[in-house]
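ingest -> validate -> predict -> emit
validate: passed (alphabet ok, no gaps, 233 aa)
predict: started
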Amino acid sequence: MVRWIKLTVINDNKPNPPLLNDWGGWSILIETDKWTLLYDADTESRVIENNVRALGIDLNRVDAAFLSHYHADHYGGFKYVGEVRRGGLTVYVPEVDNVLRRWGGLNPVTVRDSREILEDAFTTGVMSGMGVYEHSLIIRLSGYGSIIVVGCSHPGIDNIVRRGGRELLGDVYLVIGGFHGPSRQQLDVVAKYSRYVCPAHCSGDETRHYVSVAYRDKYCDVKTGTVINLPMS
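emit:
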């Protein structure tokens, strides 16, 4: 299994100057002792270009990429990623591609069912909600459980965590990403399953506040440029 994970938030709704920020965008780099993966790619090429340089990220060392769903605030920056890659980059997508392939340097691969895409890294399989087809990423961290990375959680963050945790890979260690303005009941489910809860992107200020107060020992704050090393001490 993966022994360590480093999460670097390239862009989030919450700014962190002097890094550039796009309010709607979401992108996170996931590094492990086995591979490196780019999860989503923000809205604008200028933001991701500036921030990967400022954060010392070499996109040519990325082994694969993951697109949670086809909304522009998650795929827009892939135009820049495709331009700088010296070779084709596999991007795991939840629907047949109609955007990424035209930019070059990218190889979209459609995944519908839950399966392993990299060693100890799995897609939940496509889930639907609010008219959107979306999949999320699960990583098995040795001795700790599953890390779940989400895009916008249109199918419901509670449903994703249930599928990504108990139903597929056991205990959940950390959940991070956009929770899409969930109810408190949904957040209670997430906190029940996961040791750490890291709402970001479209989660909303009310979500951040509720988790930080009701589950103070589980909450972790996320903004553009945040770096999280796992396991947490």
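The longest strand covers residues 5-11.
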